[in-house]
Amino acid sequence: MSVTSAVPPGTDGEQGRRAEVAAGLTAVRDRIAAACRAAGRGSDEVTLIAVTKTRPVSDVRLLYELGVPDIGENKDQEAAPKAAEAASLGLDVTWHFVGQLQTNKAASVVSYAQVIHSVDRLRLAAALGSRARAVGRTVTCLVQVSLDGDPARGGAVGQQVMAVADAVAREDGLVLGGVMAVAPLGMAAGAAFGKLRGVADEVRSAHPGAVMISAGMSDDLEPAIKAGATHVRVGTALLGGRSVLVR
């Protein structure tokens, strides 16, 4: 896949897109601030991850220039070339891999991602650790938690969560950051993220450094923040609706 900067810098199109992204960013930051106030938290306790799947590198550049260095992607075949192009532009981006991950993609993802949010099985933890050591990198990993047991969406279930957390913590080259989840369809977001908070507390009791809770997207960031989310993953509310895949 070739990922290109769809909006050339310095053009009228870029200025229009910059205004759109800036407006979306202001609205999302206002929502985060309001949710933090309601929860008695500081806005600086929540990191915004801009999810740029199907978006060109020009959007990554605009976000970076607007003060958003944390970028999320969910498919390696799109993320890898996008990360390479962003690096060639001198963008010091923190890449978050937030999608389901197959072990055969471990080497590629480890080469650019600083944080992997979707570690949900022992074999994947071992593969990521091996690849991280091979290239001399340290990668932060979150255990993806299944809140409803549906294997189609990925995620560790029940006692698997602690087993995967322990496995990540044992791997040289990996750092256990905490947990991640997506609120399942048919489950109220407040209840889902409350359940995740309980799991996060259990993981942190065994691994005190695992303080990250990645939860909440465009439609449900408020209940996620109320439940203690430290990172929210926002795409549509920030960048608008997605139409076609960037190629």
Describe the fold and architecture:
An 8-stranded parallel sheet has the order 7-6-5-4-3-2-1-8. The protein is built from 9 helices and 8 strands. With 247 residues, it is of the alpha/beta class. Helix 1 packs across helix 2, helix 3 packs parallel to helix 4 and helix 5 (122-135) runs parallel beside helix 6 (159-170). Strand 2, helix 3 (76-88) and strand 3 form a beta-alpha-beta unit.
Keywords:
single chain, 247 residues, alpha/beta, eight-stranded parallel beta sheet, globular, disordered N terminus
As a percent range, the share of helical residues equals 40-55%
Widest sheet: strand ordering = 7-6-5-4-3-2-1-8
Main beta sheet, described? Answer: 8 strands, parallel
Order of helices and strands: HEHEHEHEHEHEHEHEH
Q: How many runs of DSSP E, i.e. beta strands?
A: 8
Can you describe this structure in just a few lines?
By secondary structure, the protein is α/β, with parallel strands linked by helices.
What are the SSEs and their pairings?
Elements: H1 12-39, E1 47-51, H2 57-65, E2 70-73, H3 76-88, E3 94-97, H4 106-112, E4 115-119, H5 122-135, E5 139-144, H6 159-170, E6 174-180, H7 189-206, E7 212-214, H8 221-226, E8 231-234, H9 236-239
Parallel strand pairs: 1-2, 1-8, 2-3, 3-4, 4-5, 5-6, 6-7
Helix pairs in contact: 1-2, 3-4, 4-5, 5-6
